[in-house]
Fold this protein.
Amino acid sequence: MVRRWMERHAYIFFLLPGLVLYGVFMVYPLASSLGYSLFHWDGLIRGPFAGLENFKTVLTRSPYQARFWGALSHNVLFFVTTFAIQTTLGLALAVLFRKKWRGFGFFQTVYFIPYTLSMVVVGFLWLLLLNPTWGAFNQFLRLIGLGSWVQPWLGQTETALWTIILVNAWRWLGFPILVFLAGLQGIPEELHEAATVDGATGWQTFRHVTLPLLAPVIGMMTILTFIWDFNAFELVFIMQGSSGNPYYSTDLLGTLFYRTAFGDSTTGGEPGQIGIASAIAVLMLIIIGAVSILGVRQMQKRQVEY
Amino acid sequence: MHVRLMRLTQVLFLALAVLLAPAVAGAEEVTLTFWSWRTEDVDAYNQFIAAFEAEHPGIRVRFVPYRNTEYNTILATALQAGSGPDIIHLRAYGGMEPLAQAGYLMPLDDKVEALKDFNPDHLAGATNRADGRIYGVPFALQTVQVLYNVRIFEELGLKEPQTWSELLEVAEALKRAGYIPFANGAKEGWTLETFFGAVGPTFYGGSQYYEEVVAGEATFEDPRFKRAVEKMLELRPYLPDNYMGVGYTDMQVLFAQELAGMMLAGSYELGTFAQMNPDLKIGVFPIPGERAEDPAYISVYVDGSYGINANTKHPEAALAFIRFLASREYGQMFTNTLKQISAVPGTQPEDPVLAEIVELMERQGTPYLMLTAFRYGQPSGSTLLQNELQGVFAGLLSVDQAAANIQEGVASWYEPFQ
């Protein structure tokens, strides 16, 4: 009896290790931060039940709401720009590399190298390059006669976030190129040939054959980019610290959460606000979760077979 | 009978074992772990620990430093899990209080005799305001003022300014001679708080305003506070080109490599500069007021303290080490080795510049505004000041707006403002 049960349900034992790991490292922290967000906190001590009070504070009370909506808008900008760059420049490069012209293998590697570097290395490298006093970037601008463009790129509110988005894109681009390339290689050659035989121009073939067939890959990349960009933290933390310098212009949900939970890293020490930070984390989870699920649903609906 | 005797012997043996166990354990070596964020001071601490171990055979101390920016998180997590080190390098003020409040620290005021002689202002950095008890032995004091390059001043025939307009003349002369007058930048907001710590007190009126604002009688929209910020802005023409992008390490290099004549900086830079450029001769002065007879101030704060984990398995050994850290002998060793001001009363720095700072501090010191009083909640006065000053320096905000934002932010948690 027991043996038969065991045989039928043996899969449970195969699932168990994964389930335990997932439970301990994913479900438990998520559930506990949800729990934390529903209480008042006095430093590290849990106070009375707060209901949705912390959420109300984050979303509606000054100065918290200004920081939250500011950070959220920066995340949106971060995602939209990254998405725009990867689906134009990234896709164009992937299409080019698909042609397998001589020497393209080399460039393919070149574009992919930054992706293999750790974020800390990338952040530090660009800090040095963009240093306004002796950084190579401004010296290069002077060298090619664009001395009037020289700016403290990371020190101005108008340029700091854009600079970081571009540095991030520089590091990241190799990955979407690789994925698009794989997607392109999965499209049967006959379809292109048929289009050419029918008299389609290169652009028409791309627009009406390649692009629709690549849509699932682009969709998947978009969802992944969304998740990554809404969780973005490291690069800003390395290059600008946890307070979104200058004047909150590079503040992201990640840095806002970190600063609220653990105190500003540059002040050396101040009490964290566990309740409010957990509320921010839960809001991030809701935003990321909801958009990702919607995105995946949309993609499944439009699945094409060929 | 026979069986009884055996039982008795067994019981006696057991009793003997129980009695002997602590004695045997006591003879064993005790190892204390000591966590810190001072990765740059490992050698110095190992030297201090060696001196302690020589006096206390049987106690060993292991110094474990963590990355500065990660230390608070690592420590809080360990303490919450009921573990953590025996000896804890504690932050000060609002960075320490939550740990004491949560019961993770051992109160020391009744156990460390030497604390009675410490300056009460300095003990404030290691006190839990809720119960008034002291949880740490303060280690270093820091001050914020002007550091200047003595060689450049001599070369150009400049003197320490006695008035604000003399300061601007000095800056002008440096600029004419091709030097950057002040090495300060604004990329990292916290360096602007340091900037404020040097310029502010002289213009907001030192401890008088400090006490009023802490009591909630004055606000950050007070004309004195705004005037202090406006005075900072008068120095903008004397900062490096593109100062909005100049970060902390750039500032250090500009000053250490003698490209800049002055820097609004903390006393903790002296040790760093001595390493970066051993030939650099540094002088100090407080930011002067409008007239020579106006009082000039420098900001003073406690850097942090040494505390004991309430859960330590070796409370006696830990106390022995903490008492050592509160001793005059240690204070002197600390100031000589690390070139910082020891909080232990009666220590005399060998370094002449440091000795001058100590003298200034005793006559003209005032608490470092945001750090000592407004870091007990979020958004802290420091975070607000740093970011709002960046907004003002970038030309995005007026001084009035910045002051209003700081007031609103602090008032969201600071009870005397509510």
